[in-house]
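Try it yourself: sequence plus adenosine monophosphate, in.
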Amino acid sequence: MNGATGDRAVAEAAAVLGGAHEVTLLAHIDPDADALGSALALGIALHRRGARVQVAFASPERVPESLAPLDALGLLVPPAEVTTAPAVLVSCDAAEPRRLGRLARLLDTAACTVMLDHHATNPGFGDIQVLDPGAEATVVLAHRVLVEMGAPVDADVARCLYAGLVTDTRGFRTAGPAAYRLAAELVEAGADPAVLTRTLMDSHPFTWFEGLGGALARAVLEPSGLLHTTIPLADVRRYRPEEIDSVVEVLRTAVEAEVVASIMQVDERRWRVSLRSAGAVDVAAVATALGGGGHAMAAGFTREGTEQDVLAAIRAAMPHYGERSEPNGGSLHDVRHHP
Ligand code: AMP
Ligand code: MN
Ligand code: MN
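Structure, out:
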């Protein structure tokens, strides 16, 4: 989003939301702090202006435990209770309609859809598109809309915005100056960084160490620079998404890795994959080729098949893979124990 187009979209979004009596806000499936924080920040502000507000996501059934405190006003409703034809629908942090799961059908029934997102792979959807791949998080765009609306950023709103900002920038590692300024504003408004980072990023039950240990022991570093591990269905069911999703962040600390893949078994033959890049490889392109999407440095996709099918698909979609692999046509060596 640049210049007039972006500013116009923000102004249009603010005009529609500011005048709305009934708003349904959606986060993407498997919601994270950016998706839910954006939806709840806008939802809380709109509720305080007197609008009837629903916030929802299609799956899983329950809100992740670490995100539950963001819903200070109890605006979250189960997907079955969402109005079938909302006056105004807001899609938050979803790179494409499919990321809304079965609630994507509301895009066809809503009188007006506002889409807020920052994914490079977003093709554009909705009547008003506040789409800025340069924004570190969707909450940055939600904040722009709130400012344009003249809505006060109180402590409850600030917490939601801060939650998305600190997680999508991985603790401000990838934040630009404007994001730091926004963070300062949010802390002044009442967001407590120590409490939020502890809850959102640094809290795991002790029992998780066994699961993490297994995931790390199974990790394989291939000659191409692809580092991957698998998390079996039993572990995916045993631990919270907070634990399962954190594995990729440990993997990415391996200095030898160019691309890391956390391959999570979500059903017998269904795998959700988180990809991270050290910089040279655009994993958004890799994920898009495999039916997903995301950002250049962090992306994901879900795929059917065996674990080996998924791995083969990742290898095939990675650029220059062949140049660094063994000459025997693809059999790969585990170089974990190499110096
Ligand atoms: P994750 O690995 O789940 O943390 O996702 C990394 C980034 O890729 C996030 O910005 C996600 O929103 C995005 N992403 C993950 N899976 C998909 C998908 N299937 N389609 C589009 N974007 C995705
Ligand atoms: Mn997200
Ligand atoms: Mn995001």
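One thing you can check immediately is this: The longest strand covers residues 259-267.
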